[in-house]
Design a protein that fits this description.
The chain is α+β, with helices and mostly antiparallel strands and about 140 residues long. The chain has a single domain, classed as Hotdog Thioesterase (Thiol Ester Dehydrase, Chain A), CATH 3.10.129. The chain contains 3 helices and 8 strands. The chain has a 5-stranded antiparallel beta sheet, with helices on one face. β5 and β6 form a beta hairpin.
Length: about 140
């Protein structure tokens, strides 16, 4: 069975400070673009990291990151980050990303996995937090 997913697109404008002397986006900035996509996804789909922290006492650190570079991006370009939440039965948050240039060419793909960690106990949560299961039932099913 194919996992269900939920997608949102975010526009990114490449700034001068994100580029190397050749005006090409430095590879480490794609991680920031993924983060921008996740945060915008959260705003659009009522999924707030601040609420996860303040209402549930959990943090959601990245535990896995993948990136594949396909083309370069340059200063002044407008990029589109497609952020897709993958429905996973485990107690984790899985996002997949595609970053497109203005010609709709893929310039980077990636994936992140985040785990739930109890803030006070510093313990990894091995069962799905109830709030996340409720959110998934509302938005993915």
């Amino acid at each position: 069975m194919t996992p269900r997913s939920l997608t949102h697109s975010t526009t990114i404008h490449v700034r001068f400070s994100e580029c190397d002397p050749l005006k090409i986006v430095w590879h480490g900035n794609y991680v920031k673009y993924f983060e921008d996509g996740r945060e915008d996804f959260g705003k659009h789909h009522d999924f707030s990291y601040l609420e996860i922290y303040s209402k549930n006492g959990l943090s959601v650190p990245l535990v896995h990151l993948e990136m594949d570079y396909k083309r370069t991006a340059s200063f002044g370009e407008t990029l589109r980050v497609e952020t897709k939440l993958i429905d996973d039965p485990a107690a984790k948050i899985v996002f997949e990303y595609k970053i497109f240039n203005s010609a709709n060419q893929i310039i980077c793909t990636g994936k992140t996995v985040q785990a739930f960690v109890h803030l006070e106990k510093h313990e990894l949560q091995i069962t799905m937090p109830p709030f996340f299961e409720e959110w998934k039932n509302k938005h993915l099913r």
